[in-house]
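Q: What structure does this chain adopt?
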Amino acid sequence: MFSRRYLALWCACVLLAASLTLAATRHLSWLWAIVPLALVALGLFDLLQKRHAILRNYPLWGHLRFLFEFIRPEIRQYFVEDDTDEKPFSRVQRSIVYQRSKNEVDSRPYGTELDVKAVAHEWISHSLAPTRLNGHDFRIIVGPDRPQPYSLSIFNVSAMSFGSLSANAIMALNLGAKKGNFAHDTGEGSMSKYHRKHGGDIIWEIASGYFGCRNDDGTFNPDKFAKQALEPQVKMIEIKLSQGAKPGHGGVLPAAKITAEIAETRGVPMGRDCISPATHSEFSTPRGLLEFVERLRQLSGGKPTGFKLCIGHPWEFFGIAKAMLETGILPDFIVVDGAEGGTGAAPLEFTDHVGVPLQEGLLLVHNTLVGIGLRSKIRIGASGKMITAFDIAKTLAIGADWVNAARGFMFAVGCIQAQTCHTGRCPTGVATQDEVRQRALNVPDKSDRVFSFHHNTLRALQEIVQAAGLRHPGDLRAHHIVRRVSSHEVRLMSELLKYLEPGDLLAGKYHYTLYEKWWPLARSDSFAALGVDEAVPAR
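A:
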């Protein structure tokens, strides 16, 4: 309680005590105690209220932030917002999340804040014959031929683990998903009791550490997996091959950050670093991956099972595609994680320079499945800085069936991008295991905001789809999106991106260099390419 976070309140208490003492000895008028009394009363109110996490964690101090918000945007953008996000207009996007999560009007006067003449500005073409849709609960069926198919919302919570996020943040996300009937990805940290408490739909992510279903030596334990995977709350199983934040890296949760609850959830010992290896121990080839997919599908009782990856070497995914053709084993879904995504901490070089961005990765996966005639049998999800309804519309137009969002939902539960996640001193209780700090995050209130953000974003998507003259977001195609490519030229996305026709790869029609060079060299029995040394010119 003597943390520096409460320094302002303690100073007010000291000032009040001094004022009362001086007044009692008649050295001051009693009126001098009014101001410190008011400050103490306000500080106590901040501690007891449950709506604002910042005020609860920073009584009195926290009002400075809301003062800057009140006089926005002229001063707020200089004192509150950071400029560390490499994607432009992030301030506008954060404002959209806050407004929609609070059910505030997100319209604004005086036109766009974007530079519509800027190169790379994008927009969606509207129709002179707009449609009128009955609702915005847009859904797709994943694994329609499986024993337990899942009706999935096209907008869901992306993978964020318990351990990275606090217990209260996990509960708020899951309760919000329950209220809105959408899915909550566990992240690789396994399914905790906080995921289970409110019963929201779960996508259980299984990564290389096999947390929640591992033996003591870190290998996969099928019995532990089946026990949890058969729970009705688990709707889909997702094998994580890599993530956008740090593809090919793996991870470490230091021993100092592992609490008893995290150790129990992940199945790891206390007092030792929690290691997520860079590779899986259950398979080492494309064929092995698909066999593992089928194994988990059977152990889970036939629930939709797939994998998530950030695209790297193209021949590796081509090898997976060839393994699908040769074995007949198909994942029910593939989630493409863009390199620009990732709410978790990662080395700077990985954040900025490793992995394929979402647009290119998504296009490669979509095109490959189309080219081998399997696109209609495999659903594609996408994640990587999904904030607005336009972000969703553009991603669906490129080739996805649904999208996942991480930072948008983090904003909804109170994240202010203080960028102190790795320190355990998150000011809003979102990314910390400190019981006092996370106590400030009120689960019922924040779950309402999670629900509202999802609800209002899909309602905005409905309005975009209607304006485009379409009947469903799944009708969006690349020709609906327009991009300014120079100061005097605009192009349809369908003219900028190259698409294959069904069966092209099977017929040897490669159309462009990427497939012509690497498809013939991809192998189903190895992630390495045949003769790759010969394919790469010598220096």
